[in-house]
Amino acid sequence: MLIANNIIKNHFQNIYFITGGPCGGKTTVSKYLAKKYDMILYNWDEHFPDYQAVSTPEYQPALCSRTTFESWEEYFMRPVEEFAEWGKKSFEEQTGMVVADLLRISGSSGNKKILVDGFFSVNILKEISDYTRVVFLIASEEVVRHYYFNREDKRDMFECIKGLKDPEAAFENTFRSMFYKAEENEYDIQNSGFKYFKRETMGTNPNDLINQVEEHFGFNKKV
Fold first, then answer.
1. What's the pLDDT tens digit per position in 63-77?
2. The domain that contains 216 carries what CATH number?
């Protein structure tokens, strides 16, 4: 069964998307705005175990491939291109599960708005949403390298890599995979027509970003 994108878009009129890459401010902004405006917050990362639980090798080969590696050494030291392509495919496989979740939630939420903190691609969002309900938050490589493994939600991953034979090489390989084709991806975002903000340096004030996203969504006009 295929649900046409125009049907999904019609059901997503009350859903706002904060998407992009790591360390761009997605979680900080979405948590603040969801609380301020009493919105339902859907955090893609928090639902990852649910996606894995229903994955099958036939339909979600990337999500299921984690079990095919003999060690964490092999997992984190894959060739950069292979590592990056796996990440892209993993997000693509999760997208269908997220959309299904959002259809269910939007159908039972009444008029309550939903704010999504996730990793949607430009092409998908063009099909299921529009300019007024999407914002991309991205960060420079310098910012990602500084903050990524200092986050509490990456603590287990950090400790796993630290226990490898050559943790520095594994960290470097992970970062290189994150920024594989980064310029191409950023170009797509910049030319998508969607609003985007890029975090260029450390120590930026999150309130400035919150205010700009809030204004873009028009939340401050609807209080």
1. 988 777 889 999 999
2. 3.40.50.300
